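Schema walk-through. Below, the input block comes first and the output block second. Nothing else is stored per chain. Lengths vary across the set, and this one has 439 residues.
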Amino acid sequence: MSRKTALQVLTSCRVNGAWADAALKARLAKAALSPQDAALCSRLVYGVLQNQLLLDFYLGAYCSQPLDHLQKPLPDILRLGAYQILFLDRVPDSAAVNESVNLAKLCKRGQAAGLVNAVLRKISQNQHALPAIPNHSPEQFLSIRYSHPKWLVKRLLPLLGAEETEAFLAANNSVAPLTVQVNPLRTTQGELLAELEAAGVRAAPHGWVPDCLELSGTGDLTALQPFQAGKFMVQDPAARLVSLAAQVRPGQKVLDVCAAPGGKSFSCAFAMGNEGRIVACDLHESKLKRIREGAERLGVSCLETLPADGRMFRPEWEGAFDTVLVDAPCSGLGIIRKKPDTRYKKLNDLFALPVIQASILENAARYVRPGGTLVYSTCTILPAENEDVTSAFLGEHPDFSMAPFLLPDPVGESGGQLTLWPQRHGTDGFYICRMMRHP
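--- output ---
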């Protein structure tokens, strides 16, 4: 059942353009799998997406037809089988082949089962003597080996060099730890640790980001009593660092221009001791509803939500806020290890993003009071969406300048902007820039 559910999730992604994490959550809710089967299903979905180009390369060596010529969902049935054979030691090859053949039989398409059986048996027989990945160029080799698009590898190589580019790609194919931020309005780190451990959850303080814990063995996180009591929220350490860089204080007025799903607003509320005013904005009422529900669970009462387009000027907000946060819409290339299908976005979609980002930043800057703070952040690692956007903005706005900030080691002091990397810092890929409006 876990393999059938995994195939249904992958089919939703291919046919309907669904995001894997959302499709997986929806399917698991319907399938009512055991915890073990649910874990296997998740591993299969993410494993196939994380290694798709590599799996396709090996399958292409033993399949008489190009994979993209096969009727859906046969390519994903083959990928699921090959992934189990090549990556999951605890699954016998025979089980991987037989279960994949059974999936093919459900398709009721001619010789589908025979094709799946033949190809996967060849993968199994040759798994220790698979064809070599072409090495005509670094970008070609790394693209296939780590299943990232060649255009992205080509951009990363001059930015990071070959060795660190490979480390970044490998990190994207690893399992990201589950990190949560302690809610100081409801508990302390020590009390939460004890409560989680009593519930059978393995928890430990994050290695260097304050007020964050790494969890494992949670099962359904939302079923935990400490979660329901609002004692923590899921938050990557990189996102947690935004409120530290912003240096928000109790009593301030804070505007979060692109707030959904609300994590940075909540983190600011914690830092402010729930004293002051936070206005959290988004275009969609459904997302604002989620923010309000999160605030209620966490006991955050200084936050209000308003529907707003970050590019549309609101005169009543001009110069009204001590701190303005712009967590701009971006390519999401810093969170590939959590959303592996991000890597398969069309390149054309990325070209329009810097224009949107610059427009939002330009508008949001008008809401910062003289002497106030403007923080621009993204969950991507490309300069075109990060340094290029903030540099262009500062070049056109002499009333703003970079403002240094201090974060815990190993980051330390920043001159006003920094990029966090999974292979360097163990966080999401993330960009933070702090700017000050001159008094």
